[in-house]
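Sequence in, structure out. Go.
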Amino acid sequence: MRTLVKLWLALLCLLPAFSHAADNFTAQQTFAGQALSLNGKGVRTKAIFDLYTAGLYLQAKSSDAPAILAGNQAMAIRLEVTSSMITSERMEEAVREGFKKSTSDPAIQPRIEQLIAVFKEEIKQGDLYDFVYKPQSIAIIKNGKSSATIAGNDFKQAFFGIWLGEKPVQASLKKALLGQ
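Output:
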């Protein structure tokens, strides 16, 4: 019986590796007309479940999170939802939790609500989100279609800080995004 359980758990761990035919995290990618390079990619996990794959794209490779956050150059984070456990409600909770860890600035709260509104549309396994920062605003693109634009370098710092800040959503994911 134990052997059967171990085999079942091992198979569950392998499923995400076989679930996607296309590589959505190529070494070079053009986001909203801006050519960027993959800095690093990793998987957001919770308990034993893979929730999404994230990739950080920059103009030049960097492992310096504070410099990336402080910079005012084009960058992007791509998220590919890999679990049906991700729902609009769970995404809203995760976004609120991430911003709580990333910033205490109340001035960005209306823009957080604008971001959360994007996630009100049904989220399905396989959805691809691009969050593209071009100095002074983040363009949000879901499955190739523009969903919203949110202004402000302060918002960009808090948003990217969810993954790259001093209290990231997951330390191992931060390291992966930084190419470590």
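Check: The chain has a mean pLDDT of 89. The beta strands are 28-31, 34-46, 49-58, 75-81, 128-134, 137-142, 145-151.
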